[in-house]
Amino acid sequence: MTHDSEQLDRDTAPSTDDAARDAARLLAALEAFLAESSAGQGARRALHLDSKLEADLGIDSLGRVELLLRLEQTFGRRLPEALLSAAETPRDLLRALQPEGAAAVSALPVAHVAHVAPAPPVPADAAPASAQTLVEVLEWHAAAHGDRVHLTLLDGDAPPVPMTYAELLAAARRAAAGLQAAGIGSGERVAIMLPTGRDFFVAFQGALIAGAVPVPIYPPARRDRIAEHLQRQSAILRSCGARALLTIDIARPVARMLRGQVPSLERVLTIAELEESDAKLVPTPHAPDDIAFLQYTSGSTGDPKGVVLTHANLLANIRAMGAAAGASGADVFVSWLPLYHDMGLIGAWLGSLHFAMSFVVMPPTSFLARPSRWLWAIHRYRGTFSAAPNFAYELCAGRLDARELDGLDLSSWRWAFNGAEAVSAATCERFAARFAPYGFDARAIAPVYGLAECALDLTFPLERRGLRVDRIERERFAHAGEAMPAAGDDPTPIQVVACGRVLPGYVLRVADPGGAALPERREGRVEFRGPSATSGYYRNAEATAKLFDGDWLNTGDLGYVADGELYVTGRAKDVVIRGGQHLHPQELEDAVSAIQGVRKGCVAVLGVHDRSSGTETLVVIAETKLAEDARRERLRAEIAATVVAVCGSPPDDIVLAPPGSVAKTSSGKIRRADTLARYERGLLGARPEAPWRQIARLQAEALGAGARRLAGRAGDLAFGAYVWTVTAIATVPAVACGLVLPAGVASRVLRALARGLLRVSGIPVTVEGLERLPRGRAMVLVANHSSYADGPILFATLPAGFAFAAKREFERHRLVRRLFRAAGARFVDRHDAEQGVADVRALADEVRGGASLVVFPEGTFQQLPGLLPFRNGAFAIAAEAQVPVVPVTLRGVRRLLPAGTWLPRRTRVQVIVGEPIMPAGRGWTETLRLSAAARKVLLRTSGEVDRAVRD
Fold first, then answer.
1. What values do phi and psi take at 782, rounded to 5?
2. What Rg do the C-alpha atoms of the chain give, in angstroms?
3. What fold, for 5-104?
4. What are the pLDDT digits (tens) for 480-491?
5. What is the per-residue pLDDT for 6?
6. Does a cis peptide bond (omega within 30 degrees of 0) precede residue 14?
């Protein structure tokens, strides 16, 4: 790597001698940084002030953090935080270091930071144990101690901004009223694409108060990544069917591009305009089983999965974690974690909210720009709780200048949670040793394990005991899956970090591929049950079905249990099976990352299926900045030798890729599936498009999507108009039948008309399992309810002889009453308790007399997908009359005629008749058993989430 004096003169002329010296020092420091990270070898490209930091020099976001820290140490100045994302070239860095940038820099070391006086004490019971929703939690605190500071917002070197419980509630109520005025109804999804700050908290709570479902997504960080960012966000917005997007004002033009790609998206709003609305808040009921928010998991950009989390889920997990950690209103939680991620949103903020902990929060960019700011916030506010992924502890342990730490006091820190990515024992040990002189207690280190499908945490150290590491035999583990302790002189043990014990109220097991539980120290699938287990992925029945193993939720992770503690060994889908040996990518990636010349944390180990051998080939993709062939070959040989040392055999392919080739999630995890796809398509190392090309392409895609949307809307309108036209034509003979024909004859004619209407309308309906209906005996048929079309479809597809239970409201209209009675309807009152009991008794008499009954046990339906709680009258009738219950599933009807609209849509409808469920006795216990058994069948076959009240 070269930067000759003539080039330097051209770059700096006509600058002063000081500026020239600064430029020379900058380039020398940059060259040293690149040489160190490239095994002491420079790339064969010229380094000058206009080199592109990422495209030419391969410096990614974490590399920028390290580079800026080094430059600050070299120059003894503090660089402005904006450089972390804004700087494109060394010249940008130089401008910040020269006199014209002096206003943005200050001398090192960091001045001593005084402790902030703790908040006034609160009662020991200052947590709303009786609250059933997050809305109730905030309202409880606002009523109990509304003037107490809940949030302290930090942003760079700006003064802290406090916010009390009462202030948050008042602002959230204004935002909620604004959402309602914008047409956002109960159960509708509101995406929140906001950075950490006041607006995020107001937006989240405002959406909850309005009855909407918040969907946190992360805002774009850099212009040159805008295409990738928006593509992922549009996939999430389509998946959840977002009606509105809340974002910052300057992002609105970019956000509006998403509207052409997301048919449901109608409004792009800011918190300021919501709060300025003079609308009055319409009180909205909230229930424990309501969806509190959708947490989208990290993964492939094309298949985001929204984890459904109810208020009951979240409060159960928060309370279990708080009890395990001994959380109280005397604690202070300091966080820089992003609020679109479960650890930052649930563990840090919502946990602090529930237990009245003071919550001190800064944007992730503040931490990345100056990692020591996290530690100083703990010092200043006497933080007792904080959490971070492993990389943050590594960054602080190895990259901070001692001058930045002078006077630091971490003695208040009781819990230092490490999670969200693989925990490194070496990192934890380095961090504890580095900060012991500053009062850090190694017993505070707490590796935890959790997943979005559990809300947050599943296992937790139940006491402050520090790091615990299991050393196991490598060969036995790789070939037999047995985690046996290694001998003291074993030269190559596998080290696995303990993640604690399962939280109280939860059950954990390790299972083999057949679903059988395994004993301790046997590796298998980690599965659990518990009060915060999700009911599934939003509007994704296929992924939901794969999530469960019976009533156990499959985490997708592999691990083993020893002495009651969980040890996580990797992702099940990432394990490479090669010649019968199970290889865990994480360990190989860590080993290869440690080689000089390889970019740390930028290695992906993949298993590529080999059709000829029937096994998998082992592929190692390692990012490097080396360019010379001889040096790359030496690096390739060292990687091969390292892999042999770890797993006993060499890799089948080693790819030395340029920086940015290994795909990562927003939280820094390796996206192996995406990286594998790039490898197989030969796209590793492809440079991103120029920002203007990305914007132009997105605009073109948005225009095309908008045109397709208009065309589709026109088609939907035409189809809906056609269906209602033929329905209106069919209504004339239907009404005549109901008025003049005897009931039995009218029922047969109406059924023929209904079947003919389905055929003429072009609505494909398939019926499965009619042969399962008991012949020659009465039965109670129960079906899920999602649309006004449910009854007509069942009437058209079921055999004659069924009586349909219908709500008494339909009886008030003369013609409707005659049609329903001709079709065999029996009316039941839902509001008058005495009349309702009489109606049910009349139905029971009919069933005992040999009639078969069709009932929708939910009693109603809602726009939000999901199986509502059951009314148990139908099951009581079946138990008393000793007749079978037959569950019948309707699929596709919710889309055919959605709640809130009378416009039919073209879609396929399925009617699935299940196996009869025979009563085994009488009474209330048997009624509940029949109800639960039918519900289980309907949930499994409908693919919808369970919205019943949770215990």
1. -120, 135
2. 32
3. 1.10.1200
4. 889 999 998 888
5. 43
6. yes
CA–CA dist 670, 102 (Å, integer): 39
Task: Return the number of other C-beta atoms located less than 10 Å from residue 449's C-beta.
Answer: 25
Over 80: is that where the pLDDT of 64 sits? no
Kindly give the pairing relationship between strand 524-529 and strand 507-511: antiparallel
435: which residues sit within 8 A by CB, 6+ positions away?
Answer: 375, 396, 397, 408, 410
Task: Count Cβ atoms within 10 A of the Cβ of residue 915 and give its class: 0-12 exposed, 13-18 middle, 19 or more buried.
Answer: exposed
Taking CA atoms, 472 is separated from 476, 490, 526, 717, in Å, by 9, 9, 19, 65
Q: What are 202-248's pLDDT values in tens digits? A: 999 999 999 999 999 987 666 555 555 666 688 889 999 999 999 98
CB atoms inside a 10 Å sphere around CB 743: 11
CA–CA separation, 482 vs 765, rounded Å?
Answer: 52
Q: CA-to-CA distance for 67 and 64, rounded, in angstroms?
A: 5
Which pLDDT does position 815 carry in this prediction?
60
For residue 65, give Cα distances in angstroms to 406, 756, 853.
Answer: 21, 69, 69
Q: Give the pLDDT band of residue 593 (cuts 50, 70, 90).
A: confident
pLDDT band for position 294 (50/70/90)? Answer: very high
Say whether pLDDT at 431 is over 60.
yes
- The pLDDT of residue 697 is above 70: no
Over the chain, what is the mean pLDDT? 82
Secondary structure (DSSP) of 719-745: HHHHHHHHHHHHHHHHHHHHHHS-HHH
Tokens 């402005």 sit on residue? 80
Superfamily of domain 723-942, CATH level 4? Glycerol-3-phosphate (1)-acyltransferase (3.40.1130.10)
> DSSP of 634-703, one letter per residue?
HHHHHHHHHHHHHHSS--SEEEEE-TT-S-B-TTS-B-HHHHHHHHHHT-TTPPPPPHHHHHHHHHHHHH
d(CA 205, CA 641): 54
Q: Any idea of the CA torsion for 867, 872, 874, 878, to the nearest 10 degrees? A: 120
695 has a pLDDT exceeding 80? no
Order across the sheet with 825-828: list the strands: 765-768, 909-913, 885-891, 780-783, 852-855, 802-807, 825-828
For the chain, first and last CA: distance in Å?
66
Three-class DSSP labels, 233-263: HHHHHHHHCCCEEEECHHHHHHHHHHHHCCC
Q: Is the bond preceding residue 485 a cis peptide, omega within 30 degrees?
A: no
Instruction: Give the per-residue pLDDT at 41.
Output: 36
CATH dotted code for 580-686: 3.30.300.30
Higher pLDDT, 524 or 716: 524
State the residue for tokens 């097991």. Answer: 509
Give the number of other CB atoms < 10 A from CB of residue 926: 18
Residue with tokens 């080939």: 617
Contact (CB, 8 A) for 69 and 372: no
For residues 635 and 655, the answer to whether their CB atoms sit within 8 Å is: no
3.40.50.1970, 3.40.50.12780, 3.40.50.1000, 3.60.130.10: which CATH number matches 134-460? 3.40.50.12780
This model's pTM is above 0.70 = no
Among the listed residues 634, 716, 693, the one whose alpha carbon sits nearest the alpha carbon of residue 902: 716
If we measure between CA atoms, which residue out of 616, 581, 325 comes closest to residue 446?
Answer: 325
pLDDT at 474: 85
More confident residue, 415 or 939: 415
**822: helix, coil or strand?**
helix
Strand pairing category for 244-247 and 189-193: parallel
Domain ranges across the chain: 5-104, 134-460, 580-686, 723-942
Neighbouring C-beta atoms of residue 90, cutoff 10 Å: 25
Among the listed residues 88, 538, 55, 70, the one whose alpha carbon sits nearest the alpha carbon of residue 304: 538
